[in-house]
Each structure stands twice: as C-alpha cells, then as structure tokens.
Design a protein that fits this description.
This protein has 2 domains: about 90 residues, Nucleic acid-binding proteins (OB fold (Dihydrolipoamide Acetyltransferase, E2P)), CATH 2.40.50.140; about 90 residues, no CATH class. A hairpin with a 2-residue loop joins strand 8 and strand 9. With about 220 residues, the chain is α+β, with helices and mostly antiparallel strands. The protein contains 5 helices and 10 strands, in the order E-E-E-H-E-E-H-H-H-E-E-E-E-H-E. The chain is about 25% helix and about 30% strand.
Length: about 220
C-alpha cells in the first residue's frame, strides 16, 4: 500500500511510500532533489548518497522530467518546501525513464502550451487552477442542492440558434447541420415547468471572433 503527497501532514516523522512522476530534478555531488508529483500534490524528495548508496544514487541521477517511479522514505516537516513537508528517501524504484518531454521548467509561449495542453495540465500552475475550479464547481453544486434545486442537463447539439445570432459552431451530424449549444436557458425553462427549482451546469459555446490570445470555451 502506498500513500499520497496530500497526506504528508498525517505521516510526519514516519516512513511512507509514494508512486508518481518527476516534475523537476536537480542534483549536487551528494544529494539529488526531486520535485515529485502524484496527482494529489507536489513535494520535494531528497535522495542522499550516504543514505541510499552509490547504486541507487546513480539510478536517481538518471531520472528525467516525467519519469515514473516509486519512492520510500521519511516525511519531514519543512515550511520552506512545497506543501510544508519533504521526504528523505531511503529506497526507490524506477518504472520508466521519460525521454524528450516537450514542456520544461523554462518559459514557453502560449501557443506552444496550448498545442500541448494535455501535457501542460501536469504543471504546478495548471494543476492548481484545476483544483480551484473543482472547489468552485462543487461549492455551486452544494449551494443549489442544499436549497432544493435539481441539477438537469441540456443538449450540447441543437438544430438552430438559441439567441438569434448566426455565429455558431457548425458540425456535420450524419449529413445534417447541427450546432454547439449557445445556452441551456430554453431547455431549463422547460425543465422548470416539470421540476420547479432547477439549474443546469452543462457547457455552452460562443463562436464570435475574438482577438484575445488563445481560445476559451466557457461553461454556462
């Protein structure tokens, strides 16, 4: 059984095992500092030559960004580190050495990051944004659910414009034109006639040309 970075506060002074990936790595003559991530959070893990021995130390030196591994060690409180804790490693196992990972700790342009969005999501900033977004969404759901509202879904595809505009995302639906929904309002009104207090949380789309950097599809 392994633990998660988010649980480090519960395991202070005790030995744990974590499994995940290398977010960043740097080394000195006798220590290797791994910024480790496992989906639940980030933590610095210190591999010391004196503790693990030369064989494991050299193995740790071979790690690259996004390599996958298992680490075992003692959780130590350190308020200067990410999350306020770090691990002093006494054992490790490498699952796979990653090669040519395109997103590095250096700065990248917005276009490059957008083109590699599926990988960009692994970075600390994007990870934090998704966590904040999740908290906001859950808070909205909790409020409405606690006040007697029922969450209902509206269609994503529609046959025509909802708000009288021609700026629509058109798609080919088995030979027939279909459009990404601009709003769930009309469907919400119909639902309200059946359920009373309702809310919708499905995505809606806008096709108006924008000169802002990047593309954003907003949830309605």
């Amino acid at each position: 059984m392994h633990q998660y970075v988010r649980q480090f506060a519960q395991w202070e002074g005790k030995e744990v095992t974590v499994k995940g990936w290398v977010a960043n790595i740097r080394d000195s003559k006798t220590n290797i500092f791994i910024v480790f991530r496992d989906g639940s959070g980030f933590a610095q893990c210190v591999v010391s030559l004196d503790t693990v021995g030369e064989t494991l130390f050299e193995l740790a030196k071979s790690l690259t960004q996004e390599s996958s591994l298992r680490l075992s060690g003692t959780v130590v409180k350190d308020e200067k580190q990410i999350g306020g804790y770090e691990m002093h490693v006494n054992d490790l196992e490498v699952y796979q050495i990653a090669t040519e990972y395109p997103i590095t700790p250096k700065d990248h342009g917005v276009k490059f990051l957008s083109d590699n969005r599926h990988l960009w999501l692994r970075s600390q900033r994007q990870w934090a944004i998704m966590r904040i977004r999740n908290e906001i969404i859950m808070s909205i759901h909790t409020y409405f659910q606690d006040h007697g509202f029922i969450q209902m879904d509206s269609p994503i595809f529609t046959g025509n414009a909802v708000e009288g505009t021609s700026d629509l995302f058109e798609t080919d639906f088995f030979g027939q034109p279909a459009f990404l929904a601009q709003s769930g309002q009309l469907y919400g009104e119909a639902m309200a006639m059946a359920q009373g207090k309702i809310y919708t949380f499905g995505p809606t789309f806008r096709a108006e040309k924008s000169d802002t950097r990047g593309i954003c599809l907003n949830s309605g």
